[in-house]
Amino acid sequence: MILGSDKILEVPVIQGGMGVGVSMGGLAGAVAAEGGMGCISTADCGYSEDDFYKNPMEANLRALKKEIAKAREISKNRGLVAINAMTATVQFADAVKTAVKEGIDAVISGAGLPLELPKLAEGSKTLIAPVVSSAKAAAAICKSWHKKYDRLPDFVVLEGVEAGGHLGFAVKDIIDNAGMKLENILSEVSEALQSFEAAAGRKIPVFTAGGIWSSLDAKEIMEKGATGVQIATRFIGTHECDASKGYKDFLIQATGSDLEITQSPVGMPARAINSPLLKRIKESRIAPTHCSRCIKTCTPSTTPYCITDALIAAVKGDVEHGLFFSGSNISKLTEITSVKKIMDEFRNLAV
Fold this sequence. Notes:
Elements: E1 2-3, E2 7-8, E3 13-15, H1 25-33, E4 37-41, H2 56-75, E5 80-84, H3 92-101, E6 106-109, H4 117-120, E7 127-132, H5 135-149, E8 156-159, E9 165-166, H6 171-175, H7 182-200, E10 206-209, H8 215-223, E11 228-231, H9 233-236, H10 245-252, E12 259-263, E13 269-273, H11 276-283, H12 307-315, H13 339-346
Parallel strand pairs: 3-11, 4-5, 5-6, 6-7, 7-8, 8-10, 10-11
Antiparallel strand pairs: 1-2, 9-13, 12-13
Helix pairs in contact: 1-2, 2-3, 5-7
C-alpha cells in the first residue's frame, strides 16, 4: 500500500500512540521494521530526561528528536515512523513542527480537532491524519483543511467506543455502545469523505481503531470498507514496548471487569483499569504538587489530579499512583510476546 506519493506500508497496521512513555522509539521502530506504521506518542515524551521537571518543554522536544532517531535506526528504513500528537496539549504545535523537521513520515492527531495541522506540516512530505469518532468531525476537518490550506487528510484514523485512553464520545454512548458499532460509524465516515475525495483526486484511506485484536477482526472490518486498522493495547504485551515490566504485568493481570470509564483532566472521558489512584480520586481531589504545563484546558488549582504524574507513575510500574489506560480487550492480554509475532499474524491481509 502506498500512502501519499511515496510512503510504503507493507502491512495495513498502525500501532496506536500511547503516552506517557508507553510507545516511544523502541516500539515504534519495531513495528515499522515489520512493515507497519510505528507511532511515538509526543505526550510528555521527555519524562525521563534529567531536567524534565525544571524544563519540561525543552526536555520533551529533545527527547522527541532522540526517539525519532531511535525508531529510524531500529526500523532500518522499512515501514513508516509516525508521531501521535494530542491537539489538547500545550506543546502540540512545537511537537509537530519538531517531528516534521526531523523528517517524520506521518503525524496522527486527535484529542480535539487538529484544524491547524496542515500549516504545521506545510512544505514537507509528512503525511497528516486526524483521529475522528464521527462523520461530523471528519467532515468538519476536511472542510476546514480544504478551505484554508487546499489540503485534505492523507488518511484518517477512526476511533470507536472500544478504544483505550481518551475517547471522543459521551459517557452514555461508551457504556451502552449497542448503537455505536464501529462498522456503522465507518460507513458514515466513509460516506462523509466521498465528497472530499473528488477534490483530492484520490481515496482517503480510513484506519479503524477500538476493539481490534486479531487479524480476523481486521479482516472483518476491512471487508466493510476500512483500509487497515490501528492497534494499541495488544502491543503493550510485547518485549519491545517501552513501558516497564511493572506496567506490563499490571495490565496482563487485569480483566474486563477491571475496566472503567473515568473523566480525564484533558476534559474527555477515558477508558482505564481500576487502580488505587482512581479509587482515591472518587473520594477526594489529589492536588498537583507541580505543573509541567501539558494540557491547554488544565487549571492546576481545580484539576482532580495531575495526569502527567499519574501516567509517569504508571509507565514506571507504580501501581499505587499510576493511571493505566487500556482498550476493551484487556482480558486477551495474557502474555509477553514479540512485535514480529503480532505483525506476522496481520501480514497476509490484502493491501
